[in-house]
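Continuing from the previous page of notes. For each protein in this section, the sequence appears first, followed by its structure tokens. Read the first protein now.
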Amino acid sequence: MIKKIEILAPAGSSESLKAAVNAGCDAVYIGGNKFGARAYANNLSEEELLEAIDYVHIHGKSLYLTVNTVLKNPELENELYEYIKKYYEQGLDAVIVQDLGVLHFIHKNFPDLPIHASTQMTLTTAEGVKAFEGMGVTRLVTSRELSSDEIQEIREHTNLEIESFVHGALCYCYSGQCYMSSMLGGRSGNRGRCAQTCRMPYRVFEKGKSVRGEEDKYILSPKDIMTLSLIPDLIGAGIDSFKIEGRMKRPEYTALVTSIYRKYVDLYLDMGRDKYLDYTKKHQKELDEDIKKLMDLYNRGGFSSGYYKTHNGKNMMSMQRPNHSGVLVGEISQVKGNRAEIILKEEVNSQDLLDIRMNEESIYEFTLKNGAMKGDKIETNFKSTAPVKKGYAVYRTKNDRLLNELKEKYLDHDVKQGICGKFIAKIGEKMELSLTHQDIEIKVKSDIVEEAKNQPTKREKIENQLNKMNTTSFYFAHLDIILDENIFIPAVKINELRREAVSALTNQILSKYRRVLSKKNNETESNDGDSIASSHTLTQSGQEKCSNNKSKIVVHLNNRIQLEEVLQRREVDVIYYGTNDTLLKDILPIARKVNEVGKQFYLVLPHIFRKETYERYLSNIEILRDPLIQGYVIKNLEEYTFVTEVVEHQRFQKEIILDYNIHTMNNSAKEFWIEKAVNHFTSSIELNYKELKELGCEDSDLIVYGHLPLMVSAQCVLKNTKGCIKVKNKIQSIDDIEKTDELIALSNEVELVDRKNKSFFAMNVCNYCYNLIYNGQPISLLSNKSEIDRLTPYSIRLDFTFETRKQVKDTLDEFIRVFAYNHPMEDDVKDYTRGHFKRGIE
């Protein structure tokens, strides 16, 4: 028997929640008024959310609350407990979590509350979830970049439920790894305030020359995904929950997408794979019509099937238009003055919104007064300033009839729950009404039934009164009425009995979900602040020796040319070396050179550690265990498991350092890692000076210089604009590096320029087949020496990427002058940003 597949619908408002339930979802995910990843949705108030929890439970559904942002220390320590407590007691089914500090806190204070690991955690293998085993996590939400084969691999190695996105918007960046919106405007995606910078236009240059046509402006804008054709493969891969994106969309969108996926998933579950494939083949027209409805409601340049069967590519992108494309319905056949004739390729309706376009650029938009059939010709006036021409396409961006049908079917009426009833009225006894819903049965009694003195109460009247259930969530699927003859019952008494019975049934259903926090949990909460503070104090004391001296100077780089310059600097204590442009087999000679000059060598692991990368590192395990490598800088949970369980870092005396990609924005997150014997962090790049001071930096590296990566993407800017060139590392072939002074990273040859003329550099990390998009402005805290001294970070860190050897030399000269010798600053970095050190984020 095929297992049940959950249809998980988005609910950005109360209306969307009801639409999802009426359309047949099994569960909804929704945000409250805090801590959700869609801060600009019509999120529910506390009272509305409490009512929503009851509403879904009465209808036999589940509600998952999004707490899927990174929390600052005061938020977690002062607000999170009371925020969760009310919903926990009401019967909240699960929380969706990104921040490991939030996960740690919720599990400690609400140990029986299921936790879903958000896609914002960037989980790409089953190894990643081992980091939080035994901490209440019941489900992982996979990264959207995974193939169905990779998901099947996860299924074979974990007992957790697997949830994956099947429809809706797709981020360009791996979720949880995007800082673009944050750095450009202070609206952090990790805080639920993404400004959709991937939907903005960019010009692309390679070596200063444009590499694409003017019409392809939106090079970072993916199409929405639609996976109806992949249902058999996704179920076969072991996905338990089909997740629909769209908390910012209208309720009609939620209703349509939910109902269509409900329809086809149920067909598959009823028929099995072979019969389902045969059915969809024979009913291709029906499937096409359903897809057209989805297109009518929202699409960006059509749909893609996401990454399930494709690693990346231009066919997944909507480069000409970043928003709703609509459906092609006609073409301009004639233009006279400011009047255009349109020949229709599809039926259109009164109040449809049509858009005349040149390529994908909107020229003129108008609302139809009257509908017309396919093949008809219609006319419209347009503004004289609109350059409408014969041959231009006409798209429909609002299908008024479809919206009205969805509203009438799913929004105007609630789907009711069928119950069984039994009404007994015998003279001289109390009348009785029993209601049964699934395994719950209630029975209520009322006044004693009297014999009729005049006109007896008829069965039909009693039945009519009992069936007045319009204001309830129920209807009688079956109703038995047992009566003595010649009885009299006032209608008001029947109504009172019905209302009392329905209320009792409702309370009985909801009582199954109610929780009361145990005394033990309350004690945990009351001491929570002390617990976190205590563990953090231990961390600081463990670093005391370093904190009392000057901060160490750490340099992070990826290539040998820059390394040659850094090796000469005795003031640099530690080298963090990445493998963007270096193969693992070449690491030990580099590490030996670093060790020989008395510096420590730490290997920086990749941004993403998918199965293929895991296997590559596994095949080089002896290199990774070599004593020339003092430790590892890790960027994701997969790498933590790999280093602890495979490399066996403790056995081989290797230190683990968390990069800023593993968010430690609060003490609870640090406590999570301290309990795993990891106590060396990298300060968040999204906290300002005051927040860093309050959190403490004595156990952390602080990045004081570098071009920061703003996006990590499975897509490739160069491939999507010019074609895949599978860049090989030029540096490996250079024999006389002393004479080389060129821009190191090949990626620097690909430049993105936004509408405000800000530059970004796209790095092709072909070693691991992902893209990094860097801020064109480096961060520099050179002029903030006094504040950094007050922070007393364990290390200050300089990140070098695109810099020439001379630029590395000049930058190091100045930072060493200021930070190692306390000399006044002579020459600051050109065209720099302080990042969030001063301004911070919301």
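Done with the first. The second protein uses the same format. Note its length before scrolling.
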Amino acid sequence: MAIGRGSGREERREPRFDANGQSSPDLRVTPQDRPTGGGDFRASSDREPRFEPRDEGRREPNFGGRSEGPDVGAKPQRRKSSYWAWVMGRSQPARERGGGDGGGRKRRGLLAKLVSLVVALGLFGAIGAGGVVAYYASRLPAYQNLEVPKRPPNVQLIGYDGKPLANRGETGGANVPLGEMPKYVPQAFIAIEDRRFYDHWGVDIFGLARAVKANIQRGGVAQGGSTLTQQLAKNLFLTPERSMERKVQEAVLAFYLERKFGKQKILEMYLNRVYFGAGAYGVEAASQRYFGKSIRKVNVTEAAMLAGLVKAPSRLSPSRDPDAARARADVVLAAMADEGYITRDQAQSAFKTQPPSPAPKPEGAIGYAADWVMDQIDSLVGVYDEDLIVETTIDPALETEAERDLADVIAKKGGKLKVSQGVLVSLGPDGAVRALVGGKSYAESQFNRAVDAKRQPGSSFKPFVYLTALQMGLTPDTVRVDEPLQLKGWSPENYTRRYAGPMTLTYALSQSINTVAVKLGVEVGPDHVVQTAHDLGITSKLDPNPSIALGTSEVSPLEMAAAYAPFANGGTVATPYIVRSVKSSTGEPLYVRKTDAPKQVLDEERVGMINAMLSETLKSGTARGATFKAWPAAGKTGTSQDFRDAWFIGYTAQFVTAVWLGNDDNSPTKHASGGGLPVEIWSRFMAKAHEGMPVAELPGEWSPRVAGYERSGPDDVYQTGPGQGGGEPPEEGPYQGSYPDADDGYVARQRERRTPDIVREPLGFLKHLFGG
């Protein structure tokens, strides 16, 4: 039915066809049935439109794609076309798709198709992106198996003065709860790194779009789109690799972290794990490294500088480029003001505040001592998975002084004498390690020569020989003869190859006479010398043969210092130690060093004797070049064969300090002796160590047994050969040759030939007579 012009409805008249299928010439249609652009219509008098057939040249309208031809009853055939042809509007010519000019509908149709294309492409892109995300996410562990790794434990070392000394562990600093940090610390990081931190769910779409726009405008990577949560996810679970897969996984893991933890926990984990350069992980380590104080005490300017470091820790390091670090801190302060964390006035005030620039603590100043502490932690507290606080015996000022003195002397004078390495270790009389430097530069070599290197001590081992003789009844005034010596094909010689004849043990020790030391060692027995050394603190294996008197068995500098400590403390064993206590980060004690009464190994008289003898070494002997004269001191030099090792171990009532110089490859030096550079380094260090301390005498008492007896000295005893007079006191030098095997028969014969010095040693005679 069609609606006519009248008020009523008229029945639609169907066209009539004749037998040949031709339309009747009197076909009439209503105006509503009139096709647009169709034939020529003329109004009739009865208001019925009358169809006038076109001439032969006119084409009939084609509705619905009907094909031309006589078979009008056939089913209409739609022209086939591809999807893309349809999209581009080229499936049919315009004139075949409808009547009229079709301009408006054509434009609207094209727009609709373009929208459809965009939607289709977007849908396909979303499906593809979803597939990529799903694939990369499938390469991650299942959520139920994904565990946040524990933060590697930090070991904080505290010095003898109670101040932080160093940190050990992968992080370089302790974990600090968020609530213990000043509020502007996390605010600084949020302002510059992730200002929408509290508004997103791990990935900030707006921030990502903003970063993309900025990067396009500046033609490079000007901003990053990663949130704090994404950065934490990368630090916890992923490698530093830069790839599409890693970025997708980073986003997926960020959603996981946001779902598992709250914002405050994520922020705390981030601040305690982010890298700040210079081996510092976390804000506490960074604050200690760059400002020399805890993160709990930083001001807003320092907090801004730390937040600015995250972008480029190496390039913006305050210790490397202070100006760049300061400029970046100003950017952070401005961002904090923009976010309302601080006022504009506070920002301006902070701009004017200069962060402190403490002298950086070189790792070498404490590196060797810190390494030795870490070597002992497992044996003291077992396996640990939490932060530890270790109180040490190290004096930071002395540690720094020791490193400076050692490095300075080697740098200025080591080249001339072909000395490339050195050690300084200083103990308190009880064995507490006050300074320990295991090499001239920790940055160049972390090998701890003070603890782990075993070298021949040379003549610095002789005190153990003389002490053994004192324990067997001899005294410092006992006389022995310096003369040529033959021991089963071995001929130990003095450095000068000259001999002084009869002399006291004190003089022989102070002048480091090799022949007397060897004869004395054979006299008392090499096995007894070994026992004495072990009783005093030497732990290395020692060969009990005659050459032991010349220090042929290898020991470490730490052992030598410990073995001399009984001379300084009155005769008790002093086992070296560096750890006083260990406790957890919450203060729970895990280890406290016991202070049991030390073992007494020397009586007061023997302590007095050995101290009197070794004091002469600094007064008139091989260490007379020592410039430290403020305190009563004693010690012994040592030089091994071919000048490979140069030693000096000296002590007061307050410190025992051992110095060693040489080369790692054990190559000979150019006549570097114990009385040279080692004594110089020792003097410089001891002068600093004793500043401000009241002078104390060495322990022990001893005086000559016979009234009126005068000990021999260099003026009346030194001679070029037995029975010949004149000459200068000898300089210390290395022994020549070694004694490979002990001749037990010779040792026994020498013991039988030994007779007590009745005239000079009445007490020794009584002990010999009555078996005392």
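What the second structure shows: Residues 103-138 form the longest helix (36 residues). The domain at 171-352 is CATH 1.10.3810.10 (Penicillin binding protein transpeptidase fold). We return to this in next week's lecture.
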